[in-house]
Amino acid sequence: MADVSLAASLDAENIDAAANLGILLASLARFREAIPYLQKSAARADASQRPALTQLLALCGNNLAEQTLRASRTAEERAIAARRLPAIPSQAVVPTVRPPVDFPSPETMTIEELSQAVGKHALLQVEIDQKIASHIVAMREEFRSTMNEVQALRAQMDQLVRGLTDALNSTCGPQIRAPQTNPAGQLPVTTRSK
């Protein structure tokens, strides 16, 4: 791969090197990287190579959309799992990411039309990715805020229990022991000493 990449970078007009690098990147499922090389080579290829390159370019666009969809769904699932709270549909609406609309037959499309379709799809995908990322950040901030509130309430509850225990000890004598919190933050059952 390094040789093909080097050849493509040394000679910008080498259509074969660009096509080979695009094909190699596509075979490695590195579709986002493959698309520019395939666009360049398809635009300059002769009539015998153009249909195959155009078809591979369309396939890369579809595969890139599917990869991005899976990645965004995985990120959403991780965010939900990290919160360990069920997603609330009215607040956690994530835009639906769809693969590109079926392309017409590559033989009937011009390279410019295909390039425009792939480019528009890539821009839409970036926009959707940004919305998903900002949504995940907002959910993370909301989760942190909620966790801080829970910790504050837990501290207040611990203080209340200690206060009540102190009050009971002062009125009833030292027969009642103050409950001790365990590392998990749960209070054990208090027993009276005899």
Give a brief rundown of this model.
The chain is an all-alpha fold. It contains 5 helices and no strands.
Low-confidence stretches: none
User: What is the 3D shape?
Assistant: rod-shaped
Mean pLDDT: 75
Oligomeric composition of the shown chains: single chain
Structural class: mainly alpha
Report Rg: 30 Å
The major β-sheet equals: none
Strand content: under 5%
Strand elements, count: 0
Helix content: 55-70%
Helix run count:
5
Distance between the termini: 81 Å
Order of helices and strands: HHHHH
Which terms would index this structure?
0% strand, rod-shaped
Topology:
Blueprint: H1 2-10, H2 15-27, H3 31-44, H4 50-83, H5 111-172
Helix pairs in contact: 1-2, 2-3, 3-4, 4-5
How would you describe this protein?
- The protein is mainly α and 194 residues long.
- It is built from 5 helices and no strands.
- It has helices at residues 2-10, 15-27, 31-44, 50-83, 111-172.
- α1 (2-10) runs antiparallel to α2 (15-27) and α2 packs antiparallel against α3 (31-44).
- The longest helix has 62 residues, at 111-172.
- The radius of gyration is 30 Å and the shape is rod-shaped.
